[in-house]
Amino acid sequence: MTVSHGFMSRLSDTDIAALDERWHKHDYRHNELIIAHGDTGRDVFFLLEGRARVTMFSEDGKEITYRDIEAGEIFGELAGIDGKARSASVVAIAASRVARLPEAAFRDMVVKHPNFAWTLLEHLSAQLRRMTDRVYEFSTLVVRKRLIAELLHLAEEIGPVDGQVFISPAPTHSELASKISTHREEVSRAMSGLAKKGLVEKRGGMLVLRDLTALEGLVGKKE
C-alpha cells in the first residue's frame, strides 16, 4: 500500500507494512463524525482516502475550523501521546476511508520504528509552527489580512501552476470565515474587493489566486 503525499508519503515501506498489520480500516460518509470532542479514546487515525476537517463549536454554536486533513495525513495523535481527552472533533467532509491504529500499536511503532518516530516529530513541529502563525495572525491582523493569509496558506499547500494557484473545490465564504474567526459577510466583502483588483477569480468550481506576490504584499502592507 502506498500514499502519494502527506505524512504517510514520508514513511518507509517497512513502516507502511507494519502499520498495515496493526490498523483497522473503516469507511465514513460525507459529514459523518470520526472523532468527537472530549472523547476519551486514544487510538490514532490515518486518512487513506477523502478529506476531513478538525473543528469545534463555541458556546453560541459558532463553528471554528482548525485545519483540513488531506489523504495521507495522521490525526488524533495527541491523545495517543498524552492520554488526554480529544481536543477537537474530526468530521469527514467527503466520503473517506480511515485507518484506526490502537494506542498500544501506535506506541509500539514509535519505539520500534525510528523513521516513523522522526516523521511524527516533523509532523508535530509543523503543526506547532502553524498554530504559532495563527496566533500571530489573529492577534495582529485585521479580517481582510487574515483572509489573505489563509488563502496564502492554502496556496502553499497546493503550489502554483504558471504563477497561479487553483484551489479546488473552492472554499465557501462560510468555511473561510470559520477558519479566520469572523463572519461570512466580512469574508464576502473582502473577497469582492480582491476580485475587483483582479487578484482572485471564481472559475467554475475553483478559486483562482492570480497574483501571489501582490497578495503577499497586501498582508505585509500597513493599514
UniProtKB/TrEMBL annotation:
> Which GO CC terms are listed, alphabetically?
cytosol
Recite the UniProt keywords alphabetically: DNA-binding, Transcription, Transcription regulation
**What would be an example GO MF term here?**
DNA-binding transcription factor activity
Task: Return the SUPFAM superfamilies for the record.
Answer: cAMP-binding domain-like, Winged helix' DNA-binding domain
DNA-binding as UniProt keyword: yes
Q: Where is the Cyclic nucleotide-binding domain?
A: 7-127
**Any matching Pfam family:** cNMP_binding
- Domain named HTH crp-type is located at 141-213
Protein name as catalogued: Crp/Fnr family transcriptional regulator
> Source species, please?
Allomesorhizobium camelthorni
Lineage per the UniProt record = Bacteria, Pseudomonadati, Pseudomonadota, Alphaproteobacteria, Hyphomicrobiales
